[in-house]
Prior knowledge:
The structure holds two protein chains of two kinds.
Chain A: E1 2-5, H1 17-25, E2 29-30, E3 37-41, E4 49-53, H2 61-65, E5 71-73, E6 79-81, H3 91-95, E7 102-103, E8 110-111, E9 129-132, H4 145-152
Chain B: E1 6-12, E2 17-23, H1 26-29, H2 32-43, E3 57-60, E4 74-79, E5 86-91, H3 95-100, E6 106-110, E7 117-122, E8 125-130, H4 139-146, E9 157-161, H5 164-167, E10 175-177, E11 181-183, H6 188-194, E12 197-203, E13 208-209, H7 215-228, H8 234-237, H9 243-250, H10 272-278, E14 280-284, E15 294-304, E16 308-316, H11 318-324, H12 333-346, H13 350-365, H14 371-374, H15 383-395, H16 399-404, H17 408-415, E17 423-424, E18 426-427, H18 435-443, H19 454-460, H20 466-486, H21 498-507, H22 511-515, H23 517-534, H24 546-549, E19 552-553, E20 556-557, H25 560-577
Parallel strand pairs in B: 1-6, 7-12
Antiparallel strand pairs in B: 1-2, 3-4, 3-6, 4-5, 7-8, 9-10, 9-12, 10-11, 14-15, 15-16, 17-18, 19-20
Helix pairs in contact in B: 2-20, 2-23, 11-13, 12-15, 18-19, 18-25, 20-23, 20-25
Amino acid sequence: MKMLRPSRMERCIGCHSCSLACARQVFKQLSWTNAGIRIHSSGGITTGFEARTCVACDPAPCAAACPTEAIIQRQGGGVRLKQDACIRCGACAKACPVDAILISPEDGLAYLCIHCGRCVAYCPHECLELAEKDSPFCAPDSPYEDACTLAEK
Amino acid sequence: MAVHPFRVLHVRLDQGKGQVLELPGRAEHLGGSGLAAMLYQQFGDLTLPALHPSQPLIFAIGPLTGWFPLMSKTVCGFKSPYTEEYAETHAGGRLGLSLRFSGLDALVLTGAAARLTCLVVGSNRMEFHDVNFMKGMDVFTTGKHMRRYGKSNAGHRSTLRIGPAGENQSAFACINVDTYRHFGRLGAGAVLGAKQVKGLIVAGDRSLPLPENKNYPKLFKEIHTALTATDMMRKYHDLGTPINMAVLNGIRALPWRNLQATTDACIDDVSGERFAEQLLLRKTACAGCPVGCIHIGLLRQLFAEDHNYLYRQVGYDHETVFANGSMLGMTKAWKILVLLDEAEKQGLDAISSGVALAWATEAFEKGLISEKETLVPLKWDDVESYRLACVHLGLASNEFYRLLAQGVLKAAAVYGGADFACVLGQEMAGYATGENFFISQAMGFRYSHLDSAGYSYDQKTKDKDAAKAIEFMIEDEKARVMLCSLVSCLFARSAYTPEKVHEALIATDQPELAEALDSSVEAIRRTRWRLKLQSGYAPEQVQLPKRFLEVETWKGKMDPAYVEELKTLYAQKIREMGA
């Protein structure tokens, strides 16, 4: 099962294109927060950027915490989300160990990554990848490609 | 479909209150540049001085802000303390999207707070924090302290602040936006300072529904692909605009040492290529722009023996590198970063401060001023003296620096040296390409290289047909008025043709704006010029200091008769446009 990984965030320029793409394509909104991936500076813009997104837990504490099965465990890690079934209780966000779930102050609904990978193409620097959960981190044109190949051997 | 009214937050700083206004006029005024001018007409008073508390400081976005890539800038409209004319300055960073996600088309500040204040606004927030403890703080320290007021929106907010220059009401004072962007020119920072606002946080804390048509995502993808998968933007994200340094030096069009020369053999040590090889640390972007044109250099400095270093991250681009580099005779790229870092801390417009220090150096050499005025001996390439002079400019340490920080010509009026003041409406931008550029900056609406591509026209055209040149400037200005009302980054001007903008407005369910686009752009241009003319601007009175007529480029010497011809024709056109 593939998952979204922000593998190369050291390349991030803070354009928010990924969050905007997720909100636009998955949640049908213009937003930089109501999305499955959200970008934050690591403590001021001089310190670079971090991506707040799901790490595909297996089993996922958020799925266990959800009382209405709006969040369901996905085979191989991560979850599926049915926003229609969400009762806005916020239990999932409290259970998430990496703060990847946003309970939107606007509508009270849960926003989280469903590992569809639709944001990946919008990142101008390949910070993101949709890859098998346990595969080594690398990009086709990464200077680290050799190192990754070695690790696979 | 009814056109939505503009949603404007008017903050009355003197009363500590604000009001959300719904104002008609979107189809006529579009947004950005057009909206700022409309709001100045409503809230401003051209008969009052620029720093009068009741003057508005306006931040406006446009109908496509956030909806498409590179629609990422904000227009600031105000009466300039530099010129006492209606003025605009533009900035990127996160402000455009933060205003969009606060549900606002514009923010208007009027009045002055009783004490130094940090203002926080958002979709459901308006707070006034007493920040008297920030008095005199530099821009970086101010930014760090301001984080406490925007914690809940980390990463999704915009932070604006001023440094000592703004508090001291220098006409060179900028407003720093999100560390690496600025409302740089014409003294908007002094207006914020006069309002006793040290900082402003805009929390982008709400979302909007997408238009219910299939064209929007399709068009978004098409434009995003054009901007990222082609070479269209390469010059901006590769070496960035400092690529111009070597190019201009090569054609004898780069101002050196207060424009005493237009080329120099040491260019390789201060070129965009040299910055990229030696100092470029990383690049960053405005929110909503995948290009990433903001170049950040690493300044590593030894502060004690035994290899004890500190490091700073300093933004640079062509204009600031020219003004603090070639203009000051700098021979090493790292020295330029030292000055840019200091200008940043003081909250100075780094173009004006660099060009002003270049004038001061020549005046010092010629004996018009001495160390009594400058407090440090000014000498080309002497980075430490220039850094200290930059501090004095920010602090307005004495009468000389106080005057200089009001503009080079203000200082020259007292000390002499107007002939070699490199001022084209305000301190010049980094192009000594010829008559067309000099006139386009000296007379253009913003006194900027961004009003029209006069510098490019100089390079492309050999003839001296003034009518043709002015026609080019007028047409180019019109395209830019459209982009600045949307509000697009001007780097995207080849992507956002009027036809593409038309499509984009339709795709975002704004057909009335698309239909009226051409006429609204003309009307906006007229309003802007009218405001400027009404505030006292007399294009016929514009004078180029003698230094500009002494310039020699690859085309040879300047032609004073051609300059006059351009000036006369442009003045006529400006009068017609603003009638």
